[in-house]
Amino acid sequence: MSIKKKPYQAFSSGEYVVYPTHGVGKVADISKQTIAGTELEMLVVNFDKDKMTLRIPVGKVEHVGLRKIAGAATINSALATLKGKARVKKAMWSRRAQEYENKINSGNPVAIAEVVRDLYRSENLAEQSYSERQIYEQALNRLASEVAVFDNTTIEEANAKLLDLLAK
Q1: CATH code at 72-167
Q2: Taking Cα atoms as reference points, which of 54, 60, 49, 128 lies closest to residue 88?
Q3: 43-55: pLDDT as tens digits
Q4: How confident is the model at residue 143 (pLDDT cuts 50, 70, 90)?
Q5: pLDDT at 49
Q6: pTM
Q7: pLDDT digits (tens, 9 = 90+) for 82-132
Q8: Are 12 and 29 in contact (CB under 8 A)?
Q9: pLDDT band for position 9 (cuts 50, 70, 90)
């Protein structure tokens, strides 16, 4: 059985992309750089929120998981996930926290939506621990930034949309 490789996705300058461990960034440039005597074609991705720039060799783009903004089906699936019932496991917090971090860093909008749904607390429920709140906010920001680019709105509007879905 052979493993099918995904075809290389061509990225263009000015396009929004998702880097799994950092979230949504914008392709600033595609340039050639000479590193250790070897000329490499690099994808330059800016993350304005973190004031960070990544240079990714085009040959490694697939390996690091860089992808285009999710399509309508994936975003709608993630939003539907937010409407579902929270599934809180009875495992120790450290194990659940690790699982949540892995889901967030997967870059998958549906997995991130699961984390947001499971850690969401409405105003009248008990307080969250500091680490729970940190993971929740990280997941909410990741999801909101991708939804904002998809809907062509601001992050604040996307956040409001997500919180509205969670409150229902």
Answers
A1: 1.20.58.1290
A2: 128
A3: 889 988 878 898 8
A4: very high
A5: 80
A6: 0.84
A7: 888 878 778 888 899 999 999 999 989 999 999 999 888 766 566 778 888
A8: no
A9: low
- Which residues face 31 on adjacent strands? 42
Give the mean pLDDT of 23-51: 86
Domain 16-68 CATH class label: mainly beta
Place of tokens 């998809």: 150
Mean per-residue pLDDT over the chain, rounded? 85
Token pair of 68 as six digits: 């285009």
**Structural domain boundaries in the chain:** 16-68, 72-167
CB 101 within 8 A of CB 52: no
Give the largest CA-CA distance in the chain. Answer: 61
DSSP of the chain: -PPPPPPPPP--TT-EEEETTTEEEEEEEEEEEEETTEEEEEEEEEETTTTEEEEEEGGGHHHHT-EEPP-HHHHHHHHHHHHS------S-HHHHHHHHHHHHHH--HHHHHHHHHHH---TTSPPPPHHHHHHHHHHHHHHHHHHHHHHT--HHHHHHHHHHHHH-
- Cβ proximity of 17 and 25 under 8 Å: yes
Answer yes or no: same fold for 16-68 and 72-167.
Answer: no
